[in-house]
């Protein structure tokens, strides 16, 4: 069976569209497959997503397509510095969001649109120890940056805290780019003769102490409509204060095995701890903390999720000849709860994918692929309704198309 060389070929053909549209803010999937390649290796890729997410409000207004197109790059360098020691440097953009409502009074007003943009970057330095040909024990440090902008507009947020000024002016948060540090650890096992590989990788949560500049209804606005109890909490216009944002911990399980000549089966399972994730900017938190809505006045978060994310991808890869290889895959994502935040109104997905790899020479390749996503129906709610069954809009029949390109070089 020609599996020993196929093992590397098919892993390389697995494209950077694996994460692309996942639960909550998950984006890249945080793969470390490049670090597990034999010898010295470099790769770079880009993924592009074209989603269509639309629905109707409880007032039967169409929301229009609120999901923005986006792209993100990834790159990796792995060096086998000695027979039993390797080092790797991986770059990706693990979490993100890009959305804007341009229709319906539920999410827009004269002052603008409800919108969100979140960008993160990861740089992982990994050290590996291979005591035998079969085992690889690895770990390392992770440097991460995060930045973003959020705007809330429209009648969906007019009852936020019982203050109608949200419907008049709105709320804005500008998250200044800041950094934080975490770590990863894992273990891999392989039997090259049968193209067997198995790896489990844990990534820690990462704390970011960010300065968030918030724009909130001014005392003059609130006084004009009879809301005068909040002036001591809320200054006029923009206010800046520190808030801690913690990106979630995760676990990836990667499997591959030969099943017949020139053919392997592969799978990936991923867990992300979104249930414990929440964002409550400093001034927003003060605002929400004295709210009379929801009942009890316990306050609420700007963004939060009720469930952890589980996702899985399974597929088959085949080497057609010395230059061509390809794969087919099926993917599933659980989502992170329903109802969901208005800033990301889908609940999980199913997808199918096709990938093709061309190797002009044994030491380098070009790969491309495409995936089609059926995005799960969801009910969207504001933070004030989190934990209840109340919702502002319902999204159905959403879908997305993702495609990617990657190059790899062995040296």
UniProtKB/TrEMBL annotation:
Secretion signal span: 1-22
Membrane topology designation: Multi-pass membrane protein
Protein's UniProt keywords contain Acetylation: no
Gene Ontology molecular function: long-chain fatty acid transporting porin activity
Chief location category: membrane
Keywords from the named record: Cell outer membrane, Membrane, Signal, Transmembrane, Transmembrane beta strand
The organism's place on the tree of life at top rank: Bacteria
UniProt keyword annotation of Amino-acid biosynthesis present: no
Short name of one Pfam family: Toluene_X
GO CC term, one of those recorded: cell outer membrane
Subcellular location field: Cell outer membrane
Family: Belongs to the OmpP1/FadL family.
Name assigned to this protein: Transporter
């Amino acid at each position: 069976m020609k599996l020993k060389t196929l093992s590397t070929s098919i892993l390389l053909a697995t494209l950077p569209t694996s994460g692309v549209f996942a639960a909550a803010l998950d984006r890249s999937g945080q793969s470390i497959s490049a670090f597990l390649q034999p010898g010295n290796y470099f790769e770079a890729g880009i993924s592009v997503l074209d989603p269509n997410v639309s629905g109707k409000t409880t007032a039967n207004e169409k929301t229009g397509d609120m999901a923005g197109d986006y792209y993100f790059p990834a790159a990796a360098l792995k060096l086998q510095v000695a027979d039993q020691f390797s080092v790797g440097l991986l770059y990706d953009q693990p979490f993100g969001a890009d959305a804007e409502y341009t229709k319906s009074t539920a999410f827009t007003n004269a002052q603008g649109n409800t919108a969100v943009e979140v960008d993160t970057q990861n740089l992982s330095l990994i050290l590996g120890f291979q005591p035998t040909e079969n085992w690889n024990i690895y770990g390392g440090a992770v440097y991460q940056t995060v930045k973003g902008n959020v705007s809330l507009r429209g009648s969906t947020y007019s009852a936020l805290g019982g203050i109608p000024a949200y419907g008049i002016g709105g709320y804005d948060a500008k998250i200044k780019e800041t950094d934080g540090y975490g770590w990863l650890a894992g273990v891999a096992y392989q039997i090259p003769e049968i193209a067997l590989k198995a790896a489990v990788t844990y990534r820690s949560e990462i704390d970011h102490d960010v300065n968030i500049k918030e724009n909130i209804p001014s005392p003059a606005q609130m006084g004009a409509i009879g809301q005068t109890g909040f002036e001591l909490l809320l200054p006029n216009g923009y206010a800046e204060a520190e808030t801690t944002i913690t990106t979630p911990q995760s676990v990836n399980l990667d499997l591959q095995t030969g099943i017949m000549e020139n053919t392997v089966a592969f799978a990936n399972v991923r867990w992300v701890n979104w249930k414990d994730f929440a964002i409550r900017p400093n001034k927003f938190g003060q605002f929400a903390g004295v709210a009379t809505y929801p009942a009890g006045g316990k306050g609420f978060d700007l963004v939060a999720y009720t469930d952890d994310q589980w996702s899985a991808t399974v597929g088959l890869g085949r080497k057609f000849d010395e230059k061509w290889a390809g794969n087919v895959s099926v993917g599933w994502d659980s989502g992170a709860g329903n109802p969901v935040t208005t800033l990301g109104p889908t609940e999980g997905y199913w997808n199918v994918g096709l990938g093709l790899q061309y190797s002009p020479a044994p030491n380098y390749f070009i790969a491309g692929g495409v995936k089609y996503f059926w995005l799960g129906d969801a009910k969207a709610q504001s933070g004030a309704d989190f934990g209840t069954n109340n919702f502002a809009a319902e999204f159905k029949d959403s879908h997305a198309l993702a495609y990617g390109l990657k190059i790899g070089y062995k040296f």
